Predict the 3D structure of the following.
Amino acid sequence: MTFRQFAINNVIRNKRLYAAYFFSSLFTVMVFFTFAIFAFHPAFFEGFSEGSIRFEVLYGMSIAGGIIYVFSFFFVLYSMSSFLQSRKKEFGLLMMQGMSTRQIRLMVFMENMLIGFFATLSGILLGLVFAKAILLLAENVLVIDETLNFYFPLWAIVVTFVSFIVLFLFISLFVSFILRTRKLVDLIKGDKQSKGEPKASVTLGIVAAVLLAAGYATALYVRGQGVIIAMLPVIVVVVIGTYLLFTQLSVYVIRRLKSSKGVFWRKTNMVLFSDLSFRMKDNARTFFMVAIISTVAFSAIGSLYGFQSYLTKEVKDMNPYTYTYSPFKADESQLQKHSETVDETLNNYDVQAEKASVELDYFEVDNSGRPQVLIAKESDFNRFAGLLGEEKVDAGEGEAIVVSDSSKIWIGASPKERLMDVPIGLAGGRNIQPERLISTVVMPEMYSYYIVDDDTFESLPAPVETKTHIVWQATEGSEDAIIEAGGILQNKFQPGLFQAIDYQIYTINKSFGPVLFIGLFIGIVFFVSAGSFLYFRLYSDLDQDRAKFKTIAKMGLTENELKKVINRQTALLFFAPIVVALIHGAVALTALSNLFDYNLVTESAMVLGSFTLIQITYFLVVRYYYTKQIRRAVL
């Protein structure tokens, strides 16, 4: 048998531990290849109309590809170090048989290159299989009008293959060069050397709890611009607290539980807690890294999705009507001409809409803090409310109603509307004190304003300015027709004169789609890699667990008890960092809600719930094979 055959057989013999490394590398290659398919797609270089998003997409894909490539380097490096750590005993036996340090390094280099080569090929092939499905998904997420047809991505294949072969070559050389063989006796003993009782500082454990509590409290307390100011200090505090949580606090808590007879001696808890503190201490850095990486994935995707939802809702709140025409000067001939243009365009696209116009009068109001304030007639307000199906108001004689700001994007939200403390001066010296505050988006006005009954309106002094608005509320017509007609009309008029809300939301989604799509893929890569880190740590202790449970089984441990212990032990190690990451992510998304004063509960629940479901599925698969390996050794 040649040395090359020996290295290949070593890979086959260690396929259990190499499986996660292989499949995770395969997945990373596939995602990178998917981005390459987009970057080199002919649709981005020809056939796109003016104003398309090809440059934004290409730029985003390039950044995403670079992030994935850099992350892949560190992921493969960690995977290899974890794998080699579990093979200390094997290296000791090989050295005892006469293998030199140089030969061990050469064997590791050949093994890693073999795995890297096949992972790269498999990732490219799998990417080709799912390429069309991913392209179809991208058409919807990226909001692209053109069809992304399947093509043979020759350049994508070349770039992906060369990039990852170079990556695996560099990693293999690096790992082989820094590989330490240690003393032969240490290698032979492997993990059997006594580790001693893991120590944990009570002081550092308290510091961990205080840091996390302080970070959470600050993130949940601050509002508005304070969130941005507190962001960096909170991140630093929470990261340090998370590290101390896994290295100190968790070990201390487990040690306290072991000292409690009521807990430690109950049923099979002795088996569970016997080496749990050792595992927590040994895996602390892995847990810390998984928690931080997962938090980044949760927060990034949740923030992107939440901000898109917030932005589209706020744009809709600023102008709830399908189309709005607001000229700068009330020129009757221009109004008539433009109004007829809109009607004709909507008719050409088979869009039927209810039409209404209004003249809004602005008055000087002392102590309002603004040069002029809108005072709307009750009849005009109710007429527009009918278009939207909103509740109508009944302003009594001599009564004023204040409508709060319709948007928080530009002016921010205030707990109390200032106009509530400002009376309206009528002709003859009388004043009206506002009595009610409502929130509505009926009138096309972004700032707060008053509503008075029609008789009271006639008693107002002369307005300082009058603005005319014409709105169309679509009642029939396809969504595509409404958007296309809006785009044509908005581009036809001078900027600021005409607004087509559905077209504006369409352009927001079109611009935001690539960012969300790229963030989603990068987040998935981070999350799957984090799960693979846990897989490596779990399976690196498999041989030790086999021996432990085999010995305990001889003492009378039943199969059901064995299964219960394995389930609890695996779940604790698998979900400890993920639960911490979920809490971090929930706090981060709550802080984002406080920044924009917008409820992100639905978006946060969808993002965190989706990742939790993925993690549970991953856990069930890993637990099944892990339990199978233990039972095979015990029974």
